[in-house]
Amino acid sequence: MRILCPVDGVVLQTGGPEDDWYLRVQPASQPADLRHLLRGEEVRAWVGKELERLQGGVLADGGVLVDEFIREVPAARRDALLGEMFLEP
């Protein structure tokens, strides 16, 4: 699946909240253009806003939060949902 990313390149590794990083990317060009990367508090603010957006859509109809929600999404719907979440054009 493709997602919009502020850096062109190849994803080398994926992480998570426990790692304090989400993607390790090998930039396609050197030096890499990093102007559009979020850092520190910008990342926390973005994640918080996205969580609010997701909770509003889920909890407004009586839903509940679950761990690893993507496993709860039917396989046939996962790519579309992830595309919506990560701004796939």
Strand segment count: 2
What's the N-to-C terminus distance? 11 Å
Give the overall silhouette: globular
Tell me the quaternary state.
single chain
Helix content: 25-40%
* Number of separate structural domains: 2
Find the structural class using helix and strand composition: alpha+beta
Mean pLDDT, as a whole number?
Answer: 76
Give descriptors for this structure.
89 residues, alpha+beta, 2 domains, two-stranded antiparallel sheet, 2 helices, globular
Task: Walk me through this protein's architecture.
The chain is α+β, with helices and mostly antiparallel strands and 89 residues long. It has two domains: 1-36, no CATH class; 38-89, no CATH class. The chain is built from two helices and two strands; from the N terminus they run ββαα. It has helices spanning 41-59, 75-85, and strands at 9-16, 21-27. The N and C termini lie close together (11 Å).
Give me the secondary-structure topology.
Blueprint: E1 9-16, E2 21-27, H1 41-59, H2 75-85
Antiparallel strand pairs: 1-2
Describe this structure in a few short sentences.
The chain has helices at 41-59, 75-85; strands at residues 9-16, 21-27.
